Amino acid sequence: MGTNLNVADAVISTHKSLGDVIANIPEIMGDERKNSTEFIILVARHCNFVGLGRISAIKFIHRKYKLDKSVVTPIVSDIYKEYAGEFGSKSLESHLKVRNRFDDDDWQRMPYIPYEVYDCLPEIFQRATEKFDSRKRDIVLTGLFGVASGMLNIHGILNGETTWPNLYCFVVAPPASGKGVLKFAKATGQKRQNILRDSESVDIFIPANISTAALFQRLAANGEVGILFESEADTVANTLKNEWAQYDDLLRKAFHFEGATLERKDRSIKLEHPRLSVVLSGTRSQIQGIIPNVENGLFSRFIFYTFKSASHWDKEADMAGLSLDDYFGELSEAFAVIIAKSTLAQKFSFTDEQRALFHSRFEKWHNEFELYYGEEGVSIVKRLADITFRIAMILSAIRFGEQENPAETPLLYCNDVDFETAFMLAETYKHHSLFVYVTLKDNPINKKPIDMRVQMFFEKLPPDFSKAQALEIGVEIDIAERTIAKYLGNLIKASRLEQPKYGHYRKSKIG
């Protein structure tokens, strides 16, 4: 398999609703979609967004989706011509300079969750987000993932380990920027909470101002499940300062469902596989009260969504006389039914093809992060793989529960729509997490968390060159010879360079 195809296999593609076809999810891979112009346009546009060359995009769409190349080629070519200005605008490289500066203007340009995602969500998630636009819509969806993750009772196997869907979500923005809509994510789960409390004595929403002992007790009483939901991150930060409430170690363990034990003089509480979800919102300055630095293991366990909005007046949503509280009260009833029906699906899995593509994409991201961020940044990718799997599990389980009469299903396979939607979300959250990473990594001596020299070095290299030429270019920009050799090796590993023969290199061609 050639270099172009390897890069093509790593692209993050997307699906968009195809009317009645998308409504019948199990048949989405059938003949109805073959050579669909709308489908090809949307996948091609996203290939263009992430910086995949036109020829590679054609190969990817033709081979991955088994579509007629004679149909794919002219559509892709037209899209690349029409949207030439968007090429690579969502790639990792396009965000490096933003994250290296971190000023308020750049903060305002943090990527939104793509509109294609909202067309592909399960119906209940579409209904929960359709009353909002721009950042508020993204906040509600992010919170919904956290809430749903703590209420679903499905599991899967990733890298040989049992994984539940629980997520840690953190919305970071200045005061009065709209973070308050996160409460509607909690409202969506309120009816399910009431049912659990009445029928099983389970209070699934757990306050953040809780002692470590009380948190252990609540999880034990809840069957080891719970959602730590707090709209003011300061509440968590102030609580964790107390000796009686240093439960950050439990948070680190619970993300991987590791057993934890609380030993006190009068009692011992043991949790076998705690399944804890976390939903927080706060300002940039409040992050460090909970996550003091990037070396702290909590950082890479969180989904971050961060932004600064330009000041504007919010227009009232068109609710036809119905308040948002009433709207989400009704939605909560429907959500509770869906969660109850979702329990008929016991185990979640990728298909063999999805699993291969999953690892291909994350291998590419791993190599890119290692190139620019080193080992500390790589931890983000490794945890993001867990998060992507869990998001796909949530989407699939909710969609399953939306069926009118779902049959008991021992093994629920992910469909391609949810698989690709999970990756679109992961790509967005990846950039937000890296932006927060820079915030925490930066320090008074201005140590840069991103090695921009490797990007400068790469840009100065000619299309074909020898090692001697590379050394000359490196010396010109004050890079040590040993570092140059390291950069060359890392650029090859990240598929940025090829080495056709010893001592000779060329830039990879992906277009």
Report on the structure:
It is a single chain. The chain has 511 residues and is of the alpha/beta class. It has three domains: 3-86, no CATH class; 92-311 and 321-441, Rossmann fold (3-Layer(aba) Sandwich), CATH 3.40.50; 452-507, Arc Repressor Mutant, subunit A (Orthogonal Bundle), CATH 1.10.10.10. It has 22 helices and 14 strands. The chain has helices at residues 3-9, 20-23, 37-49, 54-64, 69-82, 92-101, 104-108, 115-120, 123-129, 134-151, 183-188, 190-200, 212-221, 233-240, 248-255, 287-290, 324-342, 352-401, 416-441, 452-460, 467-476, 481-493, and strands spanning 155-158, 161-163, 168-172, 205-206, 225-230, 260-263, 268-271, 275-282, 302-306, 345-349, 409-413, 464-466, 497-501, 504-507. It has a five-stranded parallel β-sheet, sandwiched between helices. It has a four-stranded mixed β-sheet with strand order 2-1-10-11, covered by helices on one side. Helix 13 links the parallel strand 4 and strand 5. The longest helix has 50 residues, at 352-401. The two termini are 16 Å apart. Mean pLDDT is 82; it is low at 1-35, 97-101 and 443-448.
